[in-house]
Every structure is written in C-alpha cells, then in structure tokens.
Amino acid sequence: MSQTLMCPVCRTPVSVTSTSEQAVCPQCRSTFWANVESGISVRPMDAAPPPVLSVRSGAPNVPAPLPYRDYSTPEDVMLPPQPPEGLFLGNVAVLLFVATIMTSMACIAVDWYAYTNLVEKDRAGVLDPEDDQWLTLLRMSSAMLNMACSLPAYVVFLVWKYSAYKNLQNFRCLGLEASPGWAAGSYFVPIISFYRPYLIMQEIWKGSDPQSEPYSANWSLGRGSSLISFWWFGYLVFCVTMVVIAMTTTMKNEPNLHEILVTLQAEIVTHAVSALTTLPLIGVILAITKRQREKGDGLLHWSASTAYEGPR
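RE: above sequence
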C-alpha cells in the first residue's frame, strides 16, 4: 500500500509505501516520519525545526519547538487526536470549592461572634471561660466541617489538573514543557512550588485553545490568562498570610484573653483570604474545562489527512 503525503516543510508530494517509515523529501531533503494509515507526516526529533506561522493573525513567525519530547515514540504523536478526559472532575472540584467557601463564611461568622462576645463580657466584668464552652464547641465543629470540604476539594483539583494536562497530549500539542504528573506534583516541591504550578496552568490554558490545531506548536503563541495570574497572586498572598500568622500567634495551655482575641482575629483573616483566593480558582477551572470541551468537539471534525499541508 502506498500513499502520497505532503512534505511538512516545502509541501512537495512524497510517495510512501510502508505503514510507518522515515521518508526523505526529494525537493528540500528534509527527513520526516510518515504514516500511511493515518495520512500524517511530521518531522522527527533530530530534524531542525522550520519556521511556523501562528494560527492567529498578527502573531510573529517563531521557530517551532522540537516535537516528540512529550511522547514516548514517534508513533505516539502520529496517532489521531483523542477526546478530552476527566472534564467532570472540574465540576466536582467546583462544587467542593463552593462548599469550602460557604463553610469558611460560617467559620468567620462564628469566630466574629465569639470575638465580640468575649470583648463585651470583658468590658462588663462578667467574663467566665466555662460559660463559653458551647461556643468553643461550635467553633471546632465549623472548623472541622470546613476542613472536611477543603481537603477533598484540593485532592480533586490536583486530579483534575493531572487530567487537564494529559488532555494536551490527547490533543497532540507539540512542544509541551511538563508532564501530567508534574502538573499535580509541582505544588509539593520547595521553591519550585512558588512559580511552576502557575506556569503549568498557563500552559494548560494555551494548549486548550479551541482555535489551535493538533500536531502543532502554535498553541504556545497564544495569550495567557489574566484570571490565572490573579488566582496565583491571591494564592501567594494566602501562603504569606499563613506564615505570618503562624509566626506571630502562639497559644499557651492556659491562654489569656489577649491571646484568645488575637487567635480569633487570625482565624477570621485566614478564612477570609482563603475564600477570596478560591473564587478566582473556581473561574479558572470552569474556563479551562469549557475550552477543553470546545476543543474536543472541534477535533471531532478535524481531518488527519490535512494535518500537515505546510505553513499557512
């Protein structure tokens, strides 16, 4: 079985006979991998990348990143694009984060009531810690409920991010800089956790562009998301706030009134910053999930035989 495929560099027709072979263009002498069954021709890893044109008007021509570095073999990238996976995880994460925000608001209300109640009783001279045991129990209950919502939310979020990055490979995006495992695990590496998760999230955003084509690195020319930048700024503020609170608040076995009031203030600030940081994160999850769903729908109508007709 033979088939004529276009050279991915100069668009010269090249006759290919075997199912998958390394062909040489007679015109420009470039070497590329060709797959007769799928009708796809792509450049090998060791070939010099040619200039490519962005799918967006007005974007400059840039050298294409080397393909295949995010696939195990050349045959992997020559497979047709796959539909996105795990999109439902985004909806689950959003629901859990909404529950986390609601429980954070409940914690703020309880802590504020406890704060004002202690201040009023202290002014009236009727302060008795044993009378407020029910209030302490209520604070503990609300805090445990908040933790019961936030921990599963972040676990599902990490699984969703793993799946979202894996979808970039399903979309056959070339030139990826990370991996699905690194997308979820970068939060747990010191120093790197302050910037790498942000870069990976921007990479997911760009690679999920419904207008980008498979077997191309043009997705990297897209604009990043300002919503992701806003979320990451809030996340860093939350981390700094937690460190400052941990360094400035200390609770003794028998704390005095001042220490209790400071602790309540710290808890109120922590829950407030956490809720404000979670809001843009919900927007990021919904936006990326929508983009990947739209791109998956668009790839259903994409023809593998026209994937590489040369630069446009």
